[in-house]
Design goal:
- The protein has helices at residues 3-23, 31-52, 61-95, 101-127, 165-177, 194-201, 219-223, 226-235, 300-306; strands spanning 131-139, 150-154, 182-185, 213-215, 239-240, 244-250, 253-259, 289-293, 310-313, 337-341, 344-348, 366-374.
- By secondary structure, the protein is of the alpha/beta class.
- The chain has a 6-stranded mixed β-sheet with strand order 1-12-2-3-4-5, covered by helices on one side.
- Strand 8, helix 9 and strand 9 form a beta-alpha-beta unit.
- The relative contact order is 0.13.
Length: 375
């Protein structure tokens, strides 16, 4: 076993032991219930790494193990954070002379109750069809013909062990109901190989929009075999934009829609280096607006220098669930929503699916209806 794996497992075991040590003795329950709690922590410690390695298993066992492990990970995450917060609160209480046995027991009960609530609510939030978020983007000098032009954006669906054909089918139905002028799929569509997931991404072929549907790669496409997925998405009828653009003629006005490969693509294929400037090569003069599809928000400084008016991104999941939203700014300039960088608008979707645990808490999924309006 590689040393890095051993270290990770040791940390995971220590965190599970910490929860058991701090919470189980504080619960006013019979010993048998405490033993069951300890057994759950042991099972969680086994299932979480097993879910990460489930791709090497045969189906349907692989998906079953992934489901069990990801559910355990979602609950464990809340248990750990709440246990840590409890210990901080107890330390503060002792410091101010407010510590008591009833406080220890009350907070001990509160941790699993709140963690269970967060896991259950997060599960329902993750598994429901994403709600439509309406976003108006004011563009200076926008031609009258492009006022009201709509782009339906979906992002970070992560078709894989727990997201299948039916989940994506409902998303496609919701997008088609918007009757958008264009559809943008801004990366991280899949988590797995084409040979395993092609039947589950098939609903994308039903996407409908006046000017068609467009796709750019995310980092997870590169983890899953980007070249094969690019070919498969094209087969489904979407236009894959690889550092290139198209010009959409709309009621006598023109809109330039460009797309770049993922920000990290060059680590997997040097020829796929993300390049917003390259995406504009050969662009005609006088287009009404320039829109860039880029999976990661951190492409924005390069898009601004290239002269784009709007960038549509995803990647962050809005943090997906507390407290990971606080860690997103360590890698990305923004977490979610409409932002401004010099003359560039950037919209960051919270994502339409989820990654890993089927859990969204404080960061609801979305299908975004972006509408261009005159400033």
């Amino acid at each position: 076993m590689p040393r890095s794996t051993t270290v990770i497992l040791a940390i995971l075991a220590s965190l599970h032991a910490y929860i058991g040590w701090r919470i189980l003795p504080a619960l006013p329950v019979p010993l048998a219930v405490q033993v069951l709690g300890a057994l759950w922590l042991v099972a969680s410690f086994v299932l979480i790494p097993a879910s990460m390695m489930s791709r090497g298993m045969r189906q349907p066992m692989a998906d079953r193990v992934a489901w069990a492990g990801f559910l355990a990970l979602g609950l464990f995450s809340s248990l750990f954070v709440l246990t840590l917060l409890r210990d901080v609160a107890l330390a503060v209480a002792v410091l101010f002379g407010a510590g008591s046995e009833s406080l220890v027991r009350g907070t001990g009960i509160g941790v699993p109750v709140l963690a269970g609530f967060a896991a259950l609510a997060g599960f329902f939030n993750a598994r429901r069809v994403a709600r439509v978020v309406e976003v108006d983007v004011p563009i200076a000098g926008l031609p009258e013909a492009l006022h009201g032009f709509t782009i339906a954006q979906i992002s970070d669906i992560h078709v894989g062990p727990t997201i299948k054909h039916g989940y994506l089918n409902r998303i496609v139905d919701a997008v088609n109901a918007l009757q958008a002028d264009a559809v943008a799929v801004t990366g991280d569509l899949v988590d797995g190989a084409v040979r395993h997931l092609a039947p589950h991404t098939a609903p994308l072929a039903r996407l409908q929009a006046r000017h068609g549907a467009f796709f750019v790669t995310g980092n997870h496409e590169y983890y899953s075999g980007a070249h094969a997925w690019i070919a498969e998405v094209r087969r489904l009828g979407l236009r894959v934009l690889m550092n290139e653009h198209v010009v959409l003629e709309h009621d006598g006005a023109s809109l330039l829609l460009a797309g770049v490969t993922d920000y990290t693509a060059h680590h997997f294929d040097p020829t796929h280096r993300s390049d917003p400037h390259k995406a504009l090569l050969g662009a005609p003069e006088g287009v009404g607006v320039k829109v860039l599809l880029a999976h990661q928000p951190r492409t924005a400084p390069f898009a601004a220098r290239a002269g784009f008016d709007l960038q549509l991104s995803g990647h962050t999941h809005g943090g997906q669930f507390f407290p990971w939203n606080f860690f997103v700014p360590m890698q990305q300039p923004w977490v979610a929503g409409l932002k401004r960088l010099e003359n560039l608008w950037v919209y960051i979707s919270r994502g339409t699916g989820y990654w890993g645990p089927p859990k969204r808490f404080g960061a609801p999924s979305e299908i975004t209806r972006v509408r261009l309006v005159r400033a």
